[in-house]
Amino acid sequence: MFNFILCIMANIFRIYIIRQFMGLFYDTKIVEKKKELLCYVLYFLYTIIPYLLFHQPVLNFITSFSGVLVLTFLYGKSMKKNIFVSSSIYIVNGLCDCVSVLLFVDYKAGSDMNEIFAVLTDFLFWICYFGVGRVLKGKEKSETIHIPLILIPVGSVGIVVLLVSETVSFPIKIVFICLVLLFINVWTFYIYGIISEFYKERYEGILLKKEVEAYQKQSAMLKETEERINQIRHDLRHHVCELRILANNKKYEEIVGYLDNMEEVTEYGANRSISGNQEIDSMLNYLLEKAETSLKVVHKNIKIPEGLQHSMDINIILGNLLENAIESAEQTKEQLLDIKVIYRQGVLKILVSNSYVGSYQYEHGVKKTTKKEGKNHGIGLQSVQKTVEKYQGVMDVNTKNGIFQVKIVMYI
Amino acid sequence: MRKISIGICDDGKEICCQMEQYIIEYGKKRSLALECFVWNSGEELCNNLKQGAHLDILFLDIVLMEMNGVEVGRYIRNYLDNREMQIIYISANQFYAQSLFQNQPMDFIIKPINQGQIVEAMDLAITILGKTKRNFSYHKGNELYYVPCSQIVYFTSEGRIIRMVSQNGEDKFYGKLEDIKESLSEDFLQIHKSYLINRRWIQRYCYEKVELFDGTVLPIAKAKRKYIRENMLEEEWDV
Predict the structure, then answer these.
(1) Does residue A364 surpass a pLDDT of 50?
(2) Residue to test with chain B: of A345, A350, A392, most B Cβ within 10 A
(3) Contact A345 B100 (CB under 8 A)
(4) Are the beta carbons of B10 and B61 closer than 8 angstroms?
(5) Which of A125-139, A160-174, A177-191, A316-330 has the lowest mean pLDDT?
(6) Does the beta carbon of A275 lie under 8 angstroms from any beta carbon of chain B?
(7) In chain A, where are the structural domains located?
(8) Where are the strands (E) in chain B, listed by range?
(9) What's the whole-number average pLDDT of chain A?
(10) What's the pLDDT tens digit per position in A182-207?
């Protein structure tokens, strides 16, 4: 009886691992959950029934391999890839089988001990999954698994091996322990999955909120610009009236004086528009004006074409960087800000550097910040990073001699 | 050694005079042998260039009477196939049309022009010219051939043979890319085991490929992509 339960459990676990493997090679989210579950239940029945009835290794091999191959068609249509994936999964599974058999000396096909081997195979298969996962998706943080977690299946393998090698005469006990171990394994990883999913969602939520904030700010800026233009239009009407009165009265010297005055005003305006790219200009003008009023030294060198695309994303980048830069430069004695935005040969390069106080440094993508709400600052840079990556770009952050510098290269 | 020849093309005669003055002063200050030529229209300039007039540096007004600065730039780059000339656009405002960037300008200066702007632009142009003014030599049989680096578009290796694509056509000779790399100017970039290209001829960089001015698309090797991207982070922030 225990043996039977163990057999079922071990198979369910094995199928769960196969499902996880699929996740490494395909985007499993495209398949409806119910449909997916149904397919796996069918696969389970398809493999377990012949297994229980016939106990034939060759038959077992044929059913489970063909089953995996059919399952791959749930996710992808490329025959080549599907054969490759299903055979890779099967080879790994088979190797784990061999290893688990090798761990025991007196293996007999079809004996009662069979189910214990199956459990052992599962643990090994599970460990392999982490190994393969690390190799394939090693760089994505959310996919990595903490080392101590791997110790659970590794430890389980150890326990089973020890038990089997010492007390061969009481398989029932071992079977029971195997069951418990299996349960602990499955449960731990299930919980782990839920927790990491939760953190991922929370993190993405924060990023999304930041992005929304950026868009809100931008629309506020546009509104402000619009109001300013209305103001200028109103002023202009007023100036025309004044000049006409002066001209009618032939007060030429006063007219010249008036015009000189007006020139100063327009010159101030001319300096403000920067690239001719309206969306980017409205953002830059707003922030640069803020910088010029609150900081002592502001250098800018902006050379981008009028029709540059993806201005929304460029604004997210520039907005975040400039806001951070102005805020931290304000707290310093030098109050220095330097911004360069250059486009050439399909590449947009951005450099923002500012003076800063404090001893924080940038290391491995995490910055220690002087701000109170420290996390937000980091998130700002992270959302910049995310946007830059969208364009296969790269971002480099440096701190040196009291200067905080961000450099970006992206393909537009 | 030849003098560095500088052209000014602007329809405002006074601006031309003033710029010429600044450039001559610059030459004295840096002790450089310069010669300066002035044109007031794009057509005249293009005609003279077509007849063989040589310019190293050109200050070019964007808004000219008939043929505008964009067209003149395109004529120089595409019709005359000259990518060596350093073009500095003179602009009345800070709006830069997309088409200007296709002519690979070295820089933009904004009116009213002051001495500082000229000095900065000239310094940079002369540094760049210094880098590009080199000849590449290769043996073919017993004969030695010379090509100015700036005219070479790219090299590609085909077994033991190197195929050189330049603006005057193609040539083949025995050699390895690794060996010729050192004798070339800094403009050359190895994007692939078998491609060595001149950056000046790149129209557009992408992460996995480059597009050249003549429409050729060449792949960037997987192993080189990150390196090339990081390199862009480090260099040419002033150009």
Answers:
(1) no
(2) A345
(3) no
(4) yes
(5) A160-174
(6) yes
(7) 2-208, 275-412
(8) 4-9, 34-39, 57-61, 86-91, 107-110, 135-140, 143-148, 152-158, 161-166, 169-174, 188-192, 195-198, 202-205, 209-212, 217-219
(9) 79
(10) 788 778 877 887 887 888 888 888 77
Is the CB of A411 inside 8 Å of chain B's CB atoms? yes
Q: Is A401 left (phi over 0), alpha (psi -120 to 50) or beta?
A: left
User: Which chain A residue has its CA at the smallest distance from B231's CA?
Assistant: A409
Q: What is the pLDDT of residue A141?
A: 45
Fold of A275-412: Heat Shock Protein 90 (3.30.565)
pLDDT at B45: 93
- pLDDT of A406 > 50? The answer is yes
- Sequence-distant (6+) residues with CB within 8 A of B209 are B217, B218, B219, B220
**Is A345's CB within 8 Å of B237's CB?**
no
* Whether the Cβ atoms of residue B39 and residue B71 lie closer than 8 Å to each other: no
To which residue do tokens 């003055």 refer?
A: B21
- With a CB cutoff of 8 Å and minimum separation 6, the contacts of A308 are A275, A277, A280, A314, A343, A348, A412, B98
Candidate from A303, A305, A393 with C-beta closest to B97: A305
Q: Do the Cβ atoms of A344 and B101 come within 8 Å? A: yes
Cβ B230–A394 below 8 Å, yes or no?
Answer: yes
Minimum distance, in Å, between the CA of residue B196 and any CA atom of chain A = 17
Q: Quote the CA–CA distance of A225 and A232 in Å, as a whole number.
A: 10
3-class SS of residue A32? coil
Low-confidence winner among A85-89, A356-360, B146-150 (lowest mean pLDDT): A356-360
Q: Which tokens sit at B93?
A: 């405002």
**Which among B206, B229, B237 is the nearest to A346, CB-wise?**
B206
Please state the domain extents for chain B: 4-132, 135-234
Task: Kindly report which listed range (A138-147, A186-195, A236-245) carries the lowest average pLDDT score.
Answer: A138-147
Q: Confidence class of residue B19 from pLDDT cuts 50, 70 and 90?
A: very high
Highest average pLDDT, of A242-246, A248-252, B185-189, B194-198, comes from B194-198
Residue A55 has pLDDT above 70, yes or no: yes
Mean pLDDT of A337-355: 91
Cβ-based contacts of A394 with chain B (< 8 Å)? 226, 229-230, 233
Instruction: Please enumerate residues of B whose Cβ is less than 8 A from a Cβ of A.
Output: 93-98, 100-101, 104, 108, 202-207, 211, 226, 229-230, 232-233, 237, 239
- Report the C-alpha gap between A84 and B85 in whole angstroms: 54
Q: Please give the residue of chain B at the shortest CA–CA distance from A275.
A: B95
B4-132 sits in which CATH class? Answer: alpha beta
Instruction: Say whether residue A101 is in contact with chain B using an 8 A CB cutoff.
Output: no
State the amino acid at position A266 in one-letter form. Answer: T
Tokens of A237: 């009407």
pLDDT at position A402, please? 84
Query: A158 Cβ partners below 8 Å, 6+ apart?
Result: none
CATH number for the domain running over B135-234: 2.40.50.1020
Strand B202-205 and strand B161-166: the pairing is unpaired
Measured between beta carbons, the chain A residues lying within 8 angstroms of B97 are 305-307
Q: Which of A8-17, A271-280, B196-205 has the highest mean pLDDT?
A: B196-205
Q: How many CB pairs under 8 A join A and B?
A: 69
Do residues B144 and B138 lie in contact, with contact meaning Cβ atoms separated by under 8 Å? yes
Q: Is B182 helix (H, G, I), strand (E, B) or coil?
A: coil
Interface residue A396 vs chain B (CB under 8 A)? yes
Asked if residue A305 has a cis previous peptide bond (ω within 30° of 0), the answer is no
A373 pLDDT higher than 50: no
Identify any residues that bridge with B8 across adjacent strands, giving them in sequence order: B38, B59
